[in-house]
């Protein structure tokens, strides 16, 4: 497998970094700020540079390149495979009744006996990410790793874009299937948050809005446990996500980020669905803890691949907003775990997708660092 880095800005155009070789590239992934992805010249430059490659990308809350976090350019990489087959599938939210149906449709198109892994990108504001991933994994099973993320829009939450062999657009979800015995896909996910306080039950919720915990107004309980920190809600909510779990599958914990509050309704809006009957527990974390644990995701992802692998990092926009200038520390921690020889690109997202250790089930996460690694062995 061969890889090459890429960058594009309106002023400098497209630049490539790495072994371009003689064989055409098969896949190019790219991430950038919404304003640049809306510039049609960017996609046109990528298509001209990689005429036969599958092109996928999305808008972000920041781009990851090696050990750096960038905001003013489109970044990514191109990959060329020897014995691995790729397939792009895409679906528009407008064509389906719900997000789960979109996931099921993508999975139906990808399904094959030699499917080895899936990488997915989706418009965060058009899809329920948890339902989308659930529909996909329900069909292909828990043996196939699904990684990826939901497109971002810095901290604006206004418009998120996904490109799937076409100019970036809203309402789109796409996935790449990797096929064959040669491809090796590693994955890792780490949060760094510590649970505190009693477990509560979500007693009234509609989609991603929680109205009651243990039969009491959700915001009342949040304010009680946050104390003075509650005065800065919803911004301070980034410091206190919720860990939720299905009582019938307690080892499949998920972290959900607080997005908004309604003081009149006493409700809290989270970044993904919050099923009634599930348990919920407050979490908190320190900057040092978040940085240290981010490296664990890199260590997990490195296990199944060789030193010539490439990596895609997807971290939560909430982590970046919380860490501020120290966000580079978590990227460096992952970079150190992966090794300097491995090319790494990625983005800050509105939701991260990766298998959860030890259950192996691919899930939508919030407030995590996830890492996907790809390499290829000779058949």
Number of strands: 27
Low-confidence stretches: none
Instruction: Please bin the fraction of helical residues.
Output: 10-25%
Broad structural category: alpha+beta
Q: What is the number of helical segments per DSSP (H or I, 4+ residues)?
A: 8
Shape descriptor: globular
How would you describe this structure to a colleague?
This protein is an alpha+beta fold and 379 residues long. It has two domains: 2-190 and 288-376, no CATH class; 194-284, no CATH class. The protein is 22% helix and 40% strand. The chain has eight helices and 27 strands. The chain has helices spanning 34-37, 40-49, 99-110, 129-140, 218-226, 287-302, 317-323, 327-338, and strands at 2-9, 13-18, 27-32, 54-59, 63-65, 68-70, 74-80, 85-92, 115-122, 146-150, 162-164, 172-179, 183-190, 194-195, 200-206, 209-213, 216-217, 242-246, 249-256, 258-262, 267-270, 279-284, 310-316, 343-349, 352-355, 362-365, 369-376. The strands form four sheets. Strands 14, 15, 16, 17, 18, 19, 20, 21 and 22 form a nine-stranded antiparallel beta sheet that branches. It has a six-stranded mixed beta sheet with strand order 2-1-7-3-4-11. It has a six-stranded mixed beta sheet with strand order 6-5-24-23-27-13. A hairpin with a 2-residue loop joins strand 16 and strand 17 (216-217). The longest helix is centred in the last third of the chain and has 16 residues, at 287-302. The protein is globular and about 65 Å long. The chain starts with a strand and ends with a strand. The mean pLDDT is 93.
